[in-house]
Amino acid sequence: MSRLVWDQTGERKYETGVKNGVLYVQAAGAYPVGVAWNGLVGVTESPTGAEPTAIYADDMKYLNMMSVEEFQATVEAYTYPDEFEECDGSAELSTGVRIGQQTRVPFGLAYKTTIGNDVSDVDFGYKLHLIYGALASPSDKAYQTINDTPEAITFSWDVTTTPVPVTDMKPTASVIIDSTKADPAKLAALELILFGDTGVDPRLPLPNEVNTLMDGAAPSAVALSTIVPADDATAIAVAADIVITFNNAISKEAVVVTSAAGLVVAGAKTWDATNKILTFNPTVNLSPATTYIVTVGGVVDIYSQALAATVKNFATA
């Protein structure tokens, strides 16, 4: 082992800044849609707990028992997304009319902080912070008259969290990814999920999904596992949904359902919590005794792997 050397060139690192904030309002334990948080000024992370309680036995200090650690933060911003209002205890009575003191909706948050060093300055890298199960406390809003030295007010919220499960680990409310250490391709795939893409809503994946994406395991090639109704199936109920299952989590798709005559079928698409199962629910029932074509195209998984387009068909009863 060589002698320790301090402050070598390139190793004088520091952290600064906060940017690229994204709000994800929680829905049924997931964070399905993100919106940009403009005007984000600062996020102060303030973990609490992890305090020792001394235990004595045999007239001596026997051990320390540590209390549960909790993640708390303070968020400061010049403004906030409209979607945050329900997280701040507001509800809309009618267009442009809102009331306060309502149930506060939990949310998730993503933001970046900058890593700098003595060589690259602030271009060295960044940390991507993910927060889960956040709940905002009521905050002061100090409005003042405009004078000869006007200032924009800042809003500030104290945030507490409820941890989410992590396989083989204790639950957590905070995940941090270091761009200087993470695989660039996998980090880019994660950011595609977090920040969205053309035709793909941004969402906040839970820690287990983040770990699956970012660990060293090589992903399987993306594939279509099953489709219901099956290819060439007949006598399918006109009220049936179309359910497509993939082997990997999917980041974007362009699945289209048409009649054999080429008419596009309108409907709603929903994903399960794993983002592997896509359900297409037609807006109205399908026509009887009609052949329908399902074009599974534009499918890209979270590892940026594309699936070759394929065509399936079925006929209604």
Tags for this model:
single chain, eight-stranded antiparallel β-sheet, four-stranded antiparallel β-sheet, 2 helices, globular
What is shown here, in short?
The protein has helices at 184-195, 207-214; strands at 14-25, 34-36, 40-45, 52-57, 60-66, 72-77, 91-94, 97-99, 107-117, 121-136, 155-161, 164-166, 169-172, 174-178, 224-228, 233-236, 242-246, 250-252, 256-259, 267-271, 277-282, 291-296, 300-301, 310-316.
Task: Write up this protein.
The structure is a single chain. This protein has 317 residues and is mainly beta. It has two helices and 24 strands. The strands form seven sheets. Strands 1, 2, 3, 6, 9, 10, 11 and 14 form an eight-stranded antiparallel beta sheet that branches. The longest helix is centred in the middle third of the chain and has 12 residues. The protein is globular and about 80 Å long. The model has no long low-confidence stretch (mean pLDDT 91).
